[in-house]
Amino acid sequence: MADTLTNREIADVFTTIADTMEVLGEDVFRTRAYRRASEAIADLPVPLATLRAQGELIAVPGIGKAIADKIAELLDTGQLAFYERLRAKVPAGVLELLRVPNVGPRTAGRLYTELGITSIAGLKAAAEGGKLNGVKGFGPKTVATLLRDIAAAETRDQRTLLFEALRAADSFITALGAACPAVQQATYAGSLRRGRETIGDLDILAATTEPGIVVQAFTTLPLVARVESSGREKATVFLHNGLQADLIAIEPALWGAALQHFTGSKAHNIRFRELALARGLSFSEHGFKPLSGGAALPCATEEDVYAAIGLPWIAPELRENQGEFEAAAAGRLPQLVELDDIRADLHMHSDWSDGKASIRAMAEAARAQGYTHMALTDHSAFLGITNGLDGERLRQQAAEVAALNSDYATSGISFRILHGVEVDITADGGLALPDDVLAALDIVVASPHVKLSQPPEQATERLLRAIRNPHVDILGHPTGRLIGSRPGSEIDLDAIARAAADTGTLLEINAGPERLDLDAPSVRRVLELGAKLTIDSDAHHPDNLQWLRLGVLTARRGWAQAKDVANTWPLATLLEWIAA
Length: 580
What we know:
By secondary structure, this protein is of the alpha/beta class. Helices cover 43% and strands 14% of the residues. The termini are far apart.
């Protein structure tokens, strides 16, 4: 039936339309319209069919009458004649080329029309066989990078980004609780609860004495597109955003045991069961059972679960069997940084460069988060696409920042905007702005944006040179990676961490959903070597400030404490650190 199409499936249709039109070189404004519609549909919390029935489709930003008519055709017939006609013009394999990092629709179109390449395998053969030699835009270095990107595409992680999974899980749990009073408590488990950067599917646990009622409510939520299976205590569904969600309804007395069991990881749980066996206990989602027989110990809380093997509670983010059991036994578990510890965001952009809001709007969003200060760090004038600032525009911007700070002070509002910049690190480790311009700023974030495929020695030396510049306070997204699409620079992390510790340069966990750079293992290592961190949203819109949650989860997975993170420090402490 056509009405089984999910929001994600319809969004994917419009994305494919936009990609195909761009491959064909069609009108850029029409292409953007389809892409905006796809993004709007993917973010909808309710099914398109419901909005259509209520006559509210065109009320959705990005959906006009023409798009609404196409949505209706898809809902009614399961097909779209315009889409089928367009798709017939381009072999499907050409669009598969877009899975290769740095191959956009226009490049894919050129590869197809000029060389007849219609698949990733064909592109790989052309690159390896020298068929790209002499083709405009494909020099030896570009071809070498292309082969690396093809390898990444062949093994690309198809899992869901942490941000998208968290948003879906939060919405689903809220909806389940509102729809079913029989739910006493509910949460997500699995890799999502451990804060991993990508997620396979959602594991939802619900405590209840009426599992059948909860399962029925779960499978009939508006967010559900299709029910895969449904039983007395378990169900599997697919949501309109394409994610799979599994429900396990649990007796309240078993809550702690089930939550520990289904949170994982596999390696943590294996080690946990070994420790239980050493105490004469077997463990499952139903709790403990003495090997010698006797009454079961169900465990209503996770604290009870860990106490049964003589350990304090271990935070989910640490459950990877990477030393957490030994630390727990020795009383050395870190007091992990919390989202509520964050006092500031030290990397964000405004409409002075490529941001989407004014400085005041970004400042008010920061105040709404409860922050006491923030750093405005628009791009430097280096990459033309970012509308970056040169020295003169930074001086003009400084006047606006000073006026806003004066307004806050006059109004008795204790909030401070630090005037900074995100300065580009050039390929040789120089900075895109002169020292005298940087010296006039409150804070400087230096970030690599180009030439990320340099050899490790060169990539490392580039960052070391930036770290040693006395005006650089923060090294932004140090590797430049994008999760699932760009691996980022290979760097000597130990050398970077030691240099940062020596100079007092803060290393950033960029909380952008596709970045999370530094990643969690790197965070743990740089902390071991004495460096300090900052967790930043890199926000380009007020809504992006919520990304800090992702950065905090990453920091926690890296065993970071509040004292390790400059965003948790009072403003005076931060300014003293920068001055020193």
